[in-house]
Amino acid sequence: MSVSSGGVPVNEERAMVRAAGQIGFYTLLSRVIGLLRDVIIGSVFGAGLSTDAFFVAFRIPNLLRRLVGEGAASAALVPVITEYLAQRSRTEAMEMVRALVGVGLGILLVLTVAGVIWTAPLVHLFAPGFGGARLDLTVALSRIMFLYLLCIGGVALAMGVLHALRHFAAPAFAPVLFNVAIILCALWLSPHLAQPVFSLAYGVVIGGFCQILWQFPVLLRLGVPVVPCWRPGHPAIRRIAFLLLPLLLGTGVYQVDQIISTLLASLLAEGSVSALWYASRLSEFPLGVFVAALNTAALPSLAMQVQHRDLNGLRESLGFALRLVNLVVLPAAVGLAVLAVPISAVLFFHGAFAAAQVLATAATLQGFAVGLWSVAAARLLAACLYALQDTRTPAWAGTAALVAKVGFSLALMGEVTASVDSQALPRVFAALSASLAVVDWGSAGLALASSLAATVNLLFQAGVLYRRLGVFPWAAWASSLGWSVTASVAMAVPLWWISRQINWLDQGVPFALRVGVLALAIAVGVVSFVMVAWPGGRTEFHALAEMLPERLFRLLPQFLQSRG
Predict the structure, then answer these.
(1) Distance of alpha carbon 426 from alpha carbon 416, whole angstroms
(2) In angstroms, what CA-CA distances link 189 with 183, 193, 221, 307?
(3) 219 with 158: CB under 8 angstroms?
(4) pLDDT at residue 541 above 70?
(5) Which of 143, 299, 303, 452 has fewest C-beta within 10 Å?
């Protein structure tokens, strides 16, 4: 049991669950609107040249944002700010925040200007298979969206400060504004532009500015200074920089993995980049709603336990979080794999989105589903290592995963070709794929390669943590895993049978019928899973119930309302 700064005992598991529930509620809202955003993009623009260009252009500043912004906020900032708040005065902590904001915004400004100047070489690096009109469009879109890096990087810095202060609602809601801005631009601005896809780039920039404006009132209300100062020599800045250097690889390995997939997908048939994007967005839904919320809530709790040298509490909190992952992510992965075609058809099979694109997206989604549990567990292990202020282990794990990713991709995506006038990188990948290709699964093979690489990452971090923490509550975790696997397999049978009752790619089937059958399959799957998993997961089910807002919690059956 850890204690608060005032000496009062704190149940960190209960604090973690409540914080995760608050984050999860707003994240769910953001993800639902984000899913609506992707459905609208698919309906308006389809999956072809323009969307391939937009998704590649968006990934470039988005990767830098996640590495430099969110990576620092979630992994380097929180432990250091928590240490200042626990061991020094609040005044010293806030002065450190001012110095952090000044240095952080300076770095983001340099990156933004450099990105605008060197957009073309970056696009060549991230999508070496692009050429002609697709390349020109990607470069033009990228230049616009590099402005997004500056404003969203500021948001990520604010998020790190607010998370350290255990204020989660405002940062979790901010992405809603981002998604709404893109939706409005896609629907209302695109018809008025010569190249409609530019509306998406403008929406990204507008959404970024909305997010940063949203953070200011909350920071001021909590007494956090928003006026930066330039103090690069501040001890905390040096400490964060020391933690951040390996974090650029460790925290961002999953994002770098996505970029590698995009790079390789650019060498495949037109539409492969879009299929990879839509499928990754669907696979990120359970990760973004539940795992990101749990991970965000867990880091301050784990960091506090480290500060109080409560390693027993740290082990128990990590084990508890991993049991929650078993109970949520495993059935989600099985559900996505079995219902890949129905989900893709209901969400995208209308407007400019063709049947072949639905099948490509569904196959790619199944590849991502294989590694969903590994990604979720690896993120929690990384959070524990960051709480211990160990950023080197995730970096080494990331290096191993990236090497594995490239190898698995070349083996699974099929042989690709490159013209004699192509750049060096496409020719290298073409030569390697000719030697290493085992199967020709296209974008689905890239997704499966990501899943296998995530497993490598997980095993690497687990081995190091086992040596660091020693005794671990393996029995409870293994029991939870066994019950979840059994229940997921039992759930898959009715899902498979229900999904085969209609032809999802028959445009004559009413949309309402498709939605109804999919909803029925999901409902039956949830009930089936809970019935089988309940005997071995009562504690975790109660914890998940406590994540709900109070009004929704009261609507649950009485057996789930026991606060235990």
Answers:
(1) 9
(2) 10, 7, 35, 51
(3) yes
(4) yes
(5) 143
Q: Answer with the residue of higher pLDDT: 409 or 13.
A: 409
- Amino acid identity, residue 105? L
Q: How far is CA 155 from CA 63, 66, 69, 333, in A?
A: 15, 11, 8, 31
Cβ contact 340:362 at 8 Å: yes
pLDDT at residue 3 greater than cutoff 70: no
Local structure of 2: helix, strand or coil: strand
Are the CB atoms for 182 and 37 separated by under 8 Å? yes
User: Quick one: CA torsion of 146, 152, 156, 157, rounded to 10 degrees?
Assistant: 90
Reference 39, options 348, 361, 356, 364; nearest CA is: 348
Structural tokens at position 465? 């943590």
* DSSP result, 154-165: HHHHHHHHHHHT
- Cα 245 to the chain's mean position, in Å? 21
Residue 399 has pLDDT above 50, yes or no: yes
Task: Please tell me the distance from the alpha carbon of residue 107 to that of residue 209, in angstroms, as a whole number.
Answer: 18
Domain ranges of the chain: 46-251
**Interacting residues of 521 by C-beta distance below 8 A, sequence separation 6+:** 339, 342, 494, 495, 498, 499
- pLDDT 10s digits, 117-147: 988 888 887 777 777 888 889 999 999 988 8
| Per-residue buried b or exposed e for 113-146, using 16+ beta carbons within 10 Å of the residue's own CB | eebbeebeebbbebbbbbbeebbebbbbbbbbbb
Amino acid, res. 457? N
* C-alpha dihedral, 379 to 385 to 390 to 392, nearest 10°: -40
Would you call 8 helix, strand, or coil by DSSP? coil
Nearest to 327 by CA among 286, 280, 385, 378: 286
pLDDT at 419 over 70: no
- Tokens 């204020």 correspond to 167
Distance CA 209, CA 311 (A): 41
Would you say 498 and 439 are in contact if contact means Cβ atoms under 8 Å apart?
Answer: no
